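#structure-requests
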Amino acid sequence: MKTLIIGNFRTGSWYLHKSYEAKGFMGLGELLSNLDNDAENKINKFKQRSNVVAKLHPSQLITDSPNTYYRLCELADEIIYIQRQDTRQQVISFAVAKQQFDKLDKQPWLRNRKVFNNNLSDEILDDVFKRLDKNNRLIQKIYDKFPSKVITLEKDLPYDPYPHKYNYTGNWQPPYNFKMLGE
């Protein structure tokens, strides 16, 4: 079984990915992330193997054509979409991870990331919102063509925030909430 988890950043997709690994699936992580120059290798493993799970964040591939995403969906036996209701918290969480990012250190993306004590400006949050919004729109296009099961972080998964969850005290609000799949 080839399982493809499609979601935006900071939606609980790693939690879901790890739950499949615990069932014996080979975990490929983010198919289109090329930080280790291994995206092509991961895609080939997804094509060739059974009992694999992978994540798809569409905006990791710089293209306006959804055909690559559609081809990956056609390979999958199971597609699971994962989303988050709380747009504001999603933006804040992604902004923190981006501020801590270093190509040699994947900690900011993981559960055990370092404590972040800096402030997040409205400009940073606006930029992050735009990136997440672009990804959300791409996911909506994929969902329209390949509808399948949808998991919402706040409704369907256990509440288990990161130990070093950032406490944002600013007033920034998203211009709007991301559209939820299936609505």
